Amino acid sequence: MLIERVGEFSLGWGESLVWDDRAQRLCFVDCAARALHWLDADDGSLHTLAMPSMPAGIVPTEDGRLVGALDDGLHLIDPEAGTTALLSAYPAGLGGRANDACADFSGNLITGTLNLGPAEGSSWWYSARHGWKLLDPEISNTNGPNVCVIDDTMTLLIGDSSADYYSYPYDAVDGSVGPRTVFGDLSGLAGVADGAALDTEGGLWCALIGGSQLARFTPEGLDRTLELPVANPADVAFGGRDLDRLYVVSVQLGAPEGTADGALLVVDGLGVAGRPEPRFTVA
Question: Could you tell me where the DSSP H helices lie in 166-274?
């Protein structure tokens, strides 16, 4: 296994990694710089698009654009045209602005409240046709949402940075969930829940910010951990042509001089691969 730095750039607050398998493009944001970045597989140069406010929760759409969580709502982002446009304001019950996000297999979006510390928050479902629906009223800070099938049951996974990673039976058609259970118990691990990505074997790779590590959880519990040369890994995504490279983005703010914090890392040789990211349907 090999862990390497990608490029020479550093990110103030790297977040929201996603691999667009159609464009062969890695997208991520710098919350501190209010910028969207991307790297094309056949280029390697860092591209940047300034955002009108702090971006998070970047999700590819079926029409080739991105949808992202900004200060005032969900925005449609076109990196090629260099434009952003408000798609939907947040519901009043969200209690602020949204953080991380994902799409499900039916083209809907899951996101939730951004809180930098323990506070009231919630997770939500959004459909371009039907609008917003509350999923869980007790998620302080939504991170690492993913939808998958576990034991023949459609399942939603959500990390709460004030607690653990949870799982719910999930109905994408009406935007509802069943009772939640703990999927990834963080009580014995350093760091708190941040971004996450699924592999094809059903393992959830979780960035534990403040813990200098990734943790992989399966339905049976903690499977493995991976130490990293950064203190604050913030998100992960499988990418590359075979989806067998695991990218990790990190946070530089507050880090001592001379550290790798703020770097984009890539991990090769894990022995597992990811899946194409589900896409949001705009209309």
Answer: none
